[in-house]
Amino acid sequence: MRKPALVALSALVIALAAAPFVLAHDDHGHEHGKAAETAASWKGEIVDVACYVPSGAKGAGHADCAKKCAKAGQPLGLLTGDGDLVLLLADHDDAKPYEAVKELAGTNVEVTGKSAERDGITVVTVTGVKAAPAG
Fold first, then answer.
1. How many whole angstroms from its chain centre is CA 88?
2. Which of 2, 67, 88, 106 is most solvent-facing, going by the fewest CB within 10 Å?
3. Domain residues of the chain, as ranges?
4. Whole-prediction pTM
5. Residue 90: phi, psi to the nearest 5?
């Protein structure tokens, strides 16, 4: 009867010793809990999320309101040509590009930055912005 107990105890010790190695799977260089970031650029219209999401407000006729909302601290998004809404964020190290986004609310732009996605929400940390033709 001692032999099965010894075998079971040995298996348990091996499993516990191997657990850290099994659990330390390849996370593709990302820390747990952090979304992967990808640098890219996107084209679309800068919209204030507070007006666009509930009522669909956008376009040149809404530009003045969008700028006021942005200056008041309302979140901004980029409405892409595909109809996707991407939430825009200021870079903690350099907020100047995001401040420029506020001035371009209601217009078409090209935004450069780093995107991340979590729970179905895509965000772009803005590193650059320039006016772009509609389309």
1. 8
2. 2
3. 38-131
4. 0.71
5. -80, 145
Q: Which residue has the tokens 């003045």?
A: 64
CATH number listed for the domain at residues 38-131: 2.40.50
DSSP three-state, residue 103: helix
Q: What is the mean pLDDT of the chain?
A: 81
Which tokens hold the place of 65?
A: 């309101």
Q: How far apart are CA 98 and CA 129, in angstroms?
A: 8
SS3 129: strand
CA–CA dist 56, 130 (Å, integer): 24
Q: What are phi and psi of 124, to 5 degrees?
A: -125, 120
Tokens of residue 12, six digits: 């348990």
Tokens of 95: 């907020």
Q: Do 131 and 107 meet the contact criterion of CB atoms below 8 Å apart?
A: yes
Residue pLDDT, tens place only, 34-77: 556 778 999 999 999 999 999 999 999 999 999 999 999 999 99
The type of residue at 110 is E
**Do 76 and 49 contact (CB within 8 A), yes or no?**
yes
Which pLDDT value is given to residue 97? 96
